[in-house]
Write a structure and sequence with these properties.
With 270 residues, the chain is α/β, with parallel strands linked by helices. It contains nine helices and nine strands. Strands 1, 2, 3, 4, 5, 6, 7, 8 and 9 form a nine-stranded mixed beta sheet that branches.
Length: 270
């Protein structure tokens, strides 16, 4: 029996991106899903756009919120599906049959299913792939993409909803906690799930310092007993890699230099 999937779309004053996302969702060949839109009280016509597609939307609201994670939590609370996936305004499913291919794979054995995505900017599109096994070392410097991840909705009520005090890393906190501390089983879907609009707040370099600070709070809260040791090991490993690269580069340059010398020597003999 197919699982009911709740697709949650968060939007604020991004009417162009919102319509792109709506069309991607309603054109899915698998229809065993519910579609939820949480709009933050947009003033750019987004509300009117939502109203024009209201027959295709199971639940929507347009009202002020306190931030993206407050809006995402509203979506989780409104959802009734076994699994949720966040496809925010500007994001889109990679193909029209993504849900058709994924749904048969959603079984009771796993709680989090994650796939690949394309990070899309105005003039670029880059594929992001993920490891088959998720570990602390992976989450230490990376994260799975929530636009490409199907999460068993009950996990949010077994543990916690997204931390609304954070601006950037609440989804990362949720994943590292449920997977690395609670050992909830996850599975890698060897397929591309979405085109991820890589122009949002978390993708901007100027916000890296905010993300780093929020991550430190999470590390200190859950992993304080070994984070510093792990950081030291990571730094040593990084330095060793740099040394190896330096040696390889030196050898390459030395071979090139010797080749030039030999060539000049032959030319001088003539």
């Amino acid at each position: 029996m197919p699982q009911k999937i709740s697709i949650i779309t968060i939007n604020y004053n991004n009417i162009k991106g919102l319509e792109k996302t709506i069309k991607s969702i309603i054109h899915q060949t698998e229809n065993h899903y519910e579609f939820i839109i949480i709009d933050g009280g947009s003033t750019d016509g987004s509300k009117e756009l939502i109203e024009s597609y209201s027959e295709k939307i199971d639940y929507w609201v347009s009202e002020p919120d306190t931030g993206v994670y407050n809006a995402m939590n509203k979506g989780i609370n409104a959802a009734t599906g076994e699994f949720v996936i966040f496809m925010n305004s500007g994001d889109s499913f990679y193909e029209n049959n993504v849900l058709e291919k994924v749904n048969p794979l959603l079984v009771d054995e796993f709680d989090i299913y994650y796939g690949d995505n394309y990070k899309v900017k105005q003039n670029s599109k880059r594929k992001k792939t993920y490891p088959e096994k998720l570990s602390f070392s992976f989450f230490y410097s990376s994260c799975i993409n929530h636009q490409a991840t199907f999460i068993r909705r009950q996990l949010f009520f077994d543990y916690f909803l997204y931390n609304e005090k954070f601006k950037i890393v609440s989804d990362w906190e949720f994943f590292i906690y449920t997977i690395c501390i609670e050992n909830r089983p996850s599975k890698y879907l060897k397929m591309t799930i979405c085109n991820y609009d890589f122009t949002g707040i978390s993708s901007k370099k100027d916000n890296k310092s905010i993300a780093d600070l929020e991550k430190k709070i999470v590390f200190d809260k859950y992993f304080s007993h070994f984070t510093e040791d792990y950081k030291l090991v990571s730094e040593i490993k990084s330095k060793r890699i740099q040394q190896i690269l330096y040696i390889k580069t030196f050898k390459t340059h030395w071979k090139l230099f010797k080749g030039i010398i030999n060539f000049l020597a032959l030319f001088a003999k003539k």
